[in-house]
Structure formats: C-alpha cells, structure tokens
Amino acid sequence: MTLLRLFRYSRAMHDLLTACGYPSLFLLSFLASTLLPLGSEWLLIAMVVRRYDPLTVVLVATTGNYLGACTSYLVGVYGGNLLAEKFLRIDGAARERAERFFSRYGSWSLLLSWLPVVGDPLCLAGGLLRIPFVRFSALVATGKVARYGVVAWLSLKGMEGMTT
Predict the structure, then answer these.
(1) What's the CA gap between 19 and 161, in Å, rounded?
(2) Mean pLDDT of the region 15-28
(3) 39, 78, 110, 147: which could form a disulfide with 114 (CB 3.0–4.6 Å)?
(4) Do 71 and 64 meet the contact criterion of CB atoms below 8 Å apart?
(5) pLDDT in tens, 92-139
C-alpha cells in the first residue's frame, strides 16, 4: 500500500468515526481497552475540537473504556490463560509485568489501568487475583475518567491558545 493510499484510508476512517460521534467514541474506547491495540484519545480530541460537549465526550469515552476493562477483569475471573492470550492478546511477558507491578503496589495499581501496554494486563490481573469488583470499579473508573478529563482539558486549553 502506498503512502498516499494509506493517508487516504486513514483520512476516510477519521472522517467516518468523527461523523458518527458518540457511538464511535464509545466503541473505539471499548475496543482500545480490550481486543485491539488502539488509541481513543485522538477521537476524543477531534470531538472536543469540533465543539462536542466536553463533559459528555469524557463520560462516553470513560464508560466505553471502563466497560472494556471490566471485560478483561471478567476474563481474569472466569476465563484464565486461554482467553487472555487468545482473545485479549495478552502475552505471558505482559501478564508477568502486570502481576509483578500488582504484587508490588497492590490493587492501587489499578489507578494506572489507562496506561498503554500494562493497563489491560492490570485489569486481567485484577480478575485473576479476585480483587473485589466494587474496589476494581472504583479504581479503574477513577483512573480512566482522570485520563480522559486531562486530555479534554488540554484540548480545550489548546483551542483557547489558538484563538488568542
């Protein structure tokens, strides 16, 4: 695929996702927290720049990403190794890093579930280690809403800087 074709494809995908708004943000945020190595921040930023309500954008992205994390947690509780490797594509090395991190910092490490690479395995480890779901939910949701809130706030500040 040539660079120009790749650019056209990515531009078309960007236009499609931003045109679909909140459902696209929810789906992308969910998938970014489970199956695929995706990022959802770019769509959140695009929507804030396009003047979508920032609070709603943050809540939709957080909800999708949180529910994706809950999927990883449930795989840890009920599915174990096979589902983790086959469906979540969490390899042994990533899982070991997450478990070491988890054993060092305890369930508080779930506040960092938004981080790339280690976030999904942290949620899986939370399920494997049977962290109570209420505690899991509170920590994961807090970390994710903080991340999306900061991204939206920085986007708004960046827009202010461009207009002054």
Answers:
(1) 25
(2) 80
(3) 147
(4) no
(5) 777 777 778 777 888 898 999 988 777 888 898 899 888 999 999 999
Q: Summarize pLDDT for 153-163 with one digit per residue, the tens.
A: 999 988 877 76
**89 vs 50: CA distance, rounded Å:** 34
| Residue carrying the six token digits 């506040």 | 111
- What are the two backbone dihedrals, phi and then psi, of residue 39, each rounded to the nearest 5 degrees? -120, 140
Tokens 């499609």 appear where? 16
Alpha helices in the chain (DSSP H): 3-20, 22-32, 41-49, 54-74, 80-86, 92-105, 119-128, 133-163
Tell me if 63 sits within 8 A of 71, measured CB to CB.
Answer: no
